[in-house]
Amino acid sequence: MKKTFLILTAFLTVLVAGGQEISGTWNGVLEVQGIQLPLVIHITEDDEGYKGTMDSPDQGATGIEITSLSYENSNLTFEVAPMAIAYTGDLNKDGNIEGTFTQMGQSLPLNFSRDPVAKKKLLRPQEPKAPYPYYSEEVAIPNPGDGLTLSGTLTLPSESGTFPVVVLISGSGAQNRDEEVFGHKPFLVLSDHLTRQGIGVLRYDDRGTGKSTGDHSTATSQDLATDVTSAVAFLKSRTDIDTKKIGLIGHSEGGLIGPMVAAKSDDIAFMVLLAGPGISGYDILMLQSELIRKASGVSGEALKKEMDLTRGALDLVRTVEDPAELKLGLQQYFIQAFENDPEQVPEGMSADAIIATQADALSSPWMQYFMRYDPGPALEQVKCPVLALNGEKDLQVPSQVNLEAIEKHLNAGGNSDVTVRELSGLNHLFQNSATGSPSEYAALEETFASSALKEISDWILIHVK
User: Fold this and answer.
1) Does the 16-112 domain belong in CATH 1.10.287?
2) pLDDT tens digit string along 186-221?
3) How confident is the model at residue 31 (pLDDT cuts 50, 70, 90)?
4) Could you give the CA distance from residue 231 to residue 76 in angstroms, rounded to a whole number?
5) Positive or negative CA dihedral for 311, 314, 320, 325?
6) Is the pTM higher than 0.70?
7) Can you tell me the distance from the alpha carbon of 228 to that of 318, in angstroms, rounded to the nearest whole number?
């Protein structure tokens, strides 16, 4: 699954070196897999010493606090245990901080200066620019059952008429309406393409994200399915929508949520699954972990040890139901594992930081639900036409095993209109890719392969005629 995230950092330092006071605001840009993440540091001094906070404007995060900090002979070191982050840097004679940021064993250069630092402009040639040759409307979608409102964009071929429409369902993690990730906006590109082909599109910020209310951190896939149901109900209330031609397009986790909705609703006329799961979350994560490690160059005994560590943790998540008991069990599991084999601790990090991060992430409501969920029963209840697409080089939701499972379950339920296709050379984001590794996502200029866009629109147009 697409459970990918950008690195956050925070550090605290108020120092005087070479006669230079460094209290105040510092600016830097952390570059992660081709994505540039601006960081703004605010440093203050009080009676107890030096303190500071960090803002990550692009992620809407402010006031991030560190857990430990030391400074000696112009050298700054700090650690943010909840995010498994470490930093070391030096205040140089030019008044800048030059250093190295480390998270989960990955080290990256990170420097700070007094002056604002501009991000490099990413080349995204497919990203459409206004004005658009179609109608676009900002909409509010109520979910009365959960007491929240989703903010979204509805695009229609024109302001007058009645049109078929699809609801876009994003992948895992808190996504905005464009499913923005690694500098790409896949749902904006997909929405623009479909609307130009005569198909309306409703896309929205996930709950607790962008302009939508609610709390994403406590939501499971089942909770997010109610947001999709609310979006369908919203479309049915409008006079410019052909209510007999409302479809769903789900990417990654969205391809798991879509069948949950379609299985229980007669309002869904068709469905497209983009890198959707056909097997359990446990099996997905085990396959994903192995494939991505191999693509990163891990092999032999090192790969076996890492996979054994992952398997043991995921076995706990799958079997221990009480969240508090699970979190404690995970902490004890990693403590014992790292005592037995200290080399399993990523370089530059403390065992405590890794244990805190992993225990929190793996005991979350989303992870517990996802690990135990089997998409098979819901797929067997889906009666509407289904198009399932996967990229051949997808390392997050491996293509062959998931497409085979999706087709098997749909057929077992008696669905007679099923199209399953593996798209050559494409990765999890449906980009043309050399290896499929997530490390390529940001570096590629292509956001969504034109061949995949055409597969989707051609199939939908046939099914809405």
Assistant:
1) no
2) 999 999 999 999 999 999 999 999 999 999 999 999
3) confident
4) 50
5) positive
6) yes
7) 26
